[in-house]
Design goal:
Blueprint (H helix, E strand, L loop, with lengths): L7 H7 L1 H12 E2 L4 E2 L15 E5 L1 H18 L3 E5 H7 L8 E6 L5 H12 L3 E6 L5 H5 L2 E4 L12 H20 L5 H22 L2 H5 L2 H5 L3 E6 L3 H16 L2 E6 L16 E5 L6 H13 L3 E6 L1 H6 L5 E4 L8 H20 L17
Parallel strand pairs: 3-4, 3-5, 5-6, 6-7, 8-9, 8-10, 10-11, 11-12
Antiparallel strand pairs: 1-2
Helix pairs in contact: 2-7, 2-8, 3-7, 3-11, 4-5, 7-8, 8-14, 11-14
The structure holds 5-amino-5-deoxy-1-O-phosphono-D-mannitol.
Protein name: Glutamine--fructose-6-phosphate aminotransferase [isomerizing]
Main location: cytoplasm
Function: Catalyzes the first step in hexosamine metabolism, converting fructose-6P into glucosamine-6P using glutamine as a nitrogen source.
Length: 364
């Protein structure tokens, strides 16, 4: 049921504060300010050599964000690949590593094949899934459910937010188990997570501004998305969302890669969405942004108030609430979802059932 919403996608975007809250309630002991996981996990974060993540599409981007978190907060090396490549790449797998697959549907053929491949080679395998009765959930050694509720729109939105929430909790648990995070640091990260639903409620308030940009996006033939650090997967996700539902060609790049090729595309007809919360990478992204501006590119900057003040005059700015850099990718995700949604609505495409796509991809 779409309720009062025009599309399932709109409803699912709006539900994010609530479903992130549900997911957090499952993984966080609110009274103690600590992550709680089952006692009988079939693996131990403390003794893991590495984590090998595989997933497809948007779920793969969740894994890309998580790589930064596992490496930074738990000092675990992470391998990550799209599942369709992972299974044929023949990476040397070792039994001290954990395989981690991420899938909304739990039925994606390539992700399932990756899971089976890892388990056959003796690795323990964990799965982050939204459908508890799915094949991937049944076969994995450990299942970490996302509590997003049914996701109907083909374009994944709330499932990604919940995947990131679970991954954030796992990274914190791993950081504690490995003695990387102190209790105080853990509590700080948990506080940031607990504030997230409220921050996203605030982000949703700029929906009107984003709706007003739809017309100009709809005229573009190409759109670029740029970000560094955990904003880089957000850039990839923004581009995928726009492609999927508006059929406008879009690409996401690590901001530092711009001058290695894509800048050749930039002229006054190309909107460039820059995701840059005011963190330790901000200055660097801004200098990439200035290179775009110098070539006449139309900049749409997603940042917080401090970032907006420092980047004044640069183009259109979408101001999101400031947050702990840990959760910033989840805050910045919402505007890129809304850009895709409103552009598609403006263009009159079938937002919930875009052409050529299926909600669950059960063939290779
Ligand atoms: O069900 P899964 O999470 O395994 O699906 C993976 C991808 O097919 C999926 O995320 C796809 O990229 C979405 N349509 C993106 O919006």
């Amino acid at each position: 049921d779409k309720g009062n919403y025009r599309h399932f996608m709109a409803k699912e975007i709006a539900e994010q504060p609530e479903v992130i809250g549900h997911t957090l309630a499952h993984y966080v002991d609110m009274a103690k300010g600590r992550v709680k996981l089952a006692d009988n996990l079939p693996f131990d974060f403390k003794s893991l050599d590495r984590i090998a993540i595989s997933a497809c599409g948007t779920a793969y981007y969740a894994g890309l964000v998580a790589r930064y978190w596992f490496e930074r907060y738990a000092r675990i090396p992470v391998d990550i690949d799209v599942a369709s490549e992972f299974r044929y790449r023949e990476p040397p797998l070792n039994s001290n590593g954990l395989a981690l697959v991420i899938s909304q549907s739990g039925e994606t053929a390539d992700t399932l094949a990756s899971l089976r491949h890892c388990m056959e080679s003796g690795m323990k395998a964990a799965a982050i899934v939204n459908v508890p009765s799915s094949t991937i959930a049944r076969e994995a050694d450990a299942v970490f459910p996302t509590l997003a509720g049914p996701e109907i729109g083909v374009a994944s939105t709330k499932a990604l937010s919940c995947q990131l929430t679970v991954l954030a909790c796992l990274a914190i648990a791993a950081g504690r188990a490995r003695g990387v995070l102190t209790e105080q640091e853990e509590r700080k990260l948990i506080t940031a997570l607990i504030e997230l639903p409220r921050l996203i409620v605030d982000v949703l308030k700029i929906e009107h501004q984003i709706e007003g940009m739809a017309k100009s996006f709809s005229k573009a033939k190409d759109v670029l998305y740029l970000g560094r650090g955990t904003s880089y997967p957000v850039a990839l996700e923004g581009a995928l969302k726009l492609k999927e539902i508006s059929y406008i060609h879009a690409e996401g790049y690590a901001a530092g890669e711009l001058k290695h090729g894509p800048i050749a595309l930039v002229d006054e007809t190309v909107p460039v969405v820059v995701i840059a919360p005011h963190d330790h990478l901000f200055e660097k992204t801004v200098s990439n942004m200035q290179e775009v501006a110098a070539r006449g590119g139309k900049i749409i900057l997603i940042t917080d108030e401090r970032g907006a003040a420092e980047a004044e005059g640069v183009g259109e700015v979408l101001v999101v609430p400031a947050s702990n850099p840990f959760v910033a990718p989840m805050v910045c995700l919402v505007p890129v979802q809304l850009i895709a949604y409103h552009t598609a609505v403006f263009m009159g495409t079938d937002v919930d059932q875009p052409r050529n796509l299926a909600k669950s991809v059960t063939v290779e």
